[in-house]
Amino acid sequence: MNLSNKEILDYLKRADETSDRALHSRADQVRQQKVGNVVYLRAIIEFSNYCRKNCLYCGLRKDNQKLQRYRMSEEETVRTAKHAWKMGYQTIVMQSGEDPFFDQTKVTKIIEKIKKETNLAITLSLGERSKEDYTAWKKAGADRYLLRHETANPELYQKLHPDSSYLHRLQCLEWLRELDYEVGAGFMVGLPGQTEEDLVMDLNLLKQLDVKMAGIGPFIPHKDTPLALEKGGNLNLALRVIALTRLILPEINIPATTALGALHSEGRELALKCGANVIMPNGTPQIYRQFYQLYPGKICLNEEPADCVTCIDNKVKNLGRTTDVKVGDYD
Ligand code: SAH
Ligand code: SF4
Asked: Quick check: 287 and 46 in contact, CB under 8 A?
C-alpha cells in the first residue's frame, strides 16, 4: 500500500483510540489477506552473551561488568537445535552478542551439523561480521539473517553506537542481500531523542532494503547501561508502527517481539492483532536465560523450551489462529 510520508506521520502523531482502532483493524485485514492466519514460530537460541560492542542501550554491552557471561558449547548448541526440531519447529534463530570466539569455522561447523541432522531453516543473528564470514555461513546452509538497522537517523545511530557506523551497518545488510540471505532488519521505537519523523525514515528504509522480515520493538532502558535513566518506548506507538509496517510491506514477516511482551503482559497478542504474524519463543535452555537480558523484564526466565512452545501455541489458539508447530511430537 502506498502511504505518503505525511499520512504515515499523521497516523504516528494521532494518539487517539478511534484512529488506532481503525489502523489496527486495517492492518489485521491486510495481514489476513496477504500472509494468512498461521502464526509462524521460530525458536530463538541465545548461545552466547559475550559482546565486543558497546551499544548504549543494551544489557550485553561490553562494559557491563555486572553481567555474568556464558557461552554454550558447540555440542550443546547443536543439541538445543535438535531439540527444537523434535518439538516441531521448522526454523530456529541463532542469536548472540558480537562474539569473536565464535569465529567463522566454529559457526560453520554448528550450521553444518544442524543441517545434517535436521531440516531446520537457520536464521542467524550474530551482528556485524565480515563479508567472508557471511559468505561461509551461507555456503554452510544458513538461510536467513536478522540485523536490525536500529534507527535510520544517522546522527542518532552514531550517538547510540560509539564503536560502529551507520554506513557500515547498511553495508552489512547489503552484503547479506547480495549473498542471497533472506534478510530481516528492524528498529527500536522510543529511543532517547528519536522523533516520529525518524520513524517515518525507518519505515522507508525497510522498504528500500526490500526486507523479508522486520523486527520492531520498544526501547526498554536497562539499569546497567548509560541509558538507565531514559524514558522507555510507548506500547501504543510501537503497535502503531507495527500496523503501519504491515500496510506498507503487506507480505513480509513481522514478529510480535519479546520486548513487547516485556513491556506489557499482552504485548505480543496485541501485536498479532495489528499486523504481526511471527512469534519467537525462547528456545534457550533455562539455566542461561537470566543472563541474556538485552533489556530488563525478560519473560519466561524460569521455563524450559518445551514450556514456551506449549504456552505460545495456546496463546495463538486463543486468538483463533494456528501455529505451524505440531506440539506434542517431541520426546
Ligand atoms: N548482537 C546482535 C544480536 C543481538 S541484539 C545485534 O546487535 O544485531 C538483538 C536486538 O536487541 C538488537 O538489534 C536491538 O534492537 C535489541 N535491543 C538491545 N537492547 C535493547 C533494549 N534496551 N531495548 C529494546 N531492544 C533492545
Ligand atoms: Fe552487542 Fe547486539 Fe547488544 Fe549491541 S545490541 S551490545 S551488538 S548484543
From this structure: no
Any ligand 1 atom below 6 A from CB of 147: yes
Give yes or no for residue 111 CB within 6 A of ligand 1. Answer: no
Q: What is the distance between the alpha carbons of residues 167 and 172, in angstroms, rounded to a whole number? A: 9
Ligand 1 pocket mutation pick from 294, 295, 298 by most atoms within 8 angstroms of CB: 294
Nearest-atom number in ligand 2 for the CA of 150 is 5
For the chain, what is the total number of helices (H) and then of strands (E)? 13, 8
Answer yes or no: is the C-beta of 95 below 6 A from any ligand 1 atom.
Answer: yes
Q: Provide the grid cell at 224.
A: 546497567
Instruction: Classify residue 74 by burial, with Cβ atoms within 10 Å: 0-12, 13-18, 19+.
Output: middle
Minimal-distance CA residue to ligand 1 atom 24 = 219
Q: What is the pTM of this model?
A: 0.97
In the chain, where do the E strands start and end?
38-48, 91-96, 121-125, 144-146, 182-189, 213-218, 278-279, 322-323
Nearest CA to ligand 2 atom 2: 97
Half-sphere exposure of residue 75: CA atoms within 13 angstroms, side-chain side: 0
> Does the C-beta of 148 come closer than 6 Å to ligand 1?
yes
pLDDT in tens, 120-156: 999 999 999 999 999 999 999 999 999 999 999 999 9
- Alpha-carbon distances of 217 from 66, 236, 238, 278, rounded to whole Å: 25, 11, 6, 13
